[in-house]
# Entry
Amino acid sequence: MLREWQLSDAASLAENASNIHVRSSLHDYFPYPYSEEEGKQFIGMALSKPRPATDMAIVVDGKAVGGISIALQTDVERISAEIGYWLGENYWNRGIMTEAVKEMASYAFLNFLQLRKIYATIFDFNIASQRVLQKAGFEREGILKQAAIKNGKVIDLHYYGLIK
# Structure
């Protein structure tokens, strides 16, 4: 289900990422609309990072239909990583993302031995993503009040963590 990105994934990446419903629950730096050229640039960046990989494609029926990554933290937080993910709307509500999060967490703990914790911050309105994390074994550790702004509205972030 997860594999490293390939340059041949650029068209499928753009097709699945260029969706306002996908974009509405992601950080603002995620482009919209999402072009094939932006897909090629992202894949090139992901492939240029040191190994083991931290950015993976979510693959269904041979097509990259989403992405999942971990951001290794530094300094005193070097034992933690933030997980982030998205999935093309045509693939929602099938359990795909829960399995991808479980697989990525296992991969991260196995390949980055310093990791003790993987965490995520989820927009308060994104109940589906909160359920994904809960089903994948993450626990809600707290709510960061008025910690973000999305679509012009100040919102809370729900902080979830998974301990090794």
About this structure: Residues 96 and 148 are 27 Å apart (CA to CA).
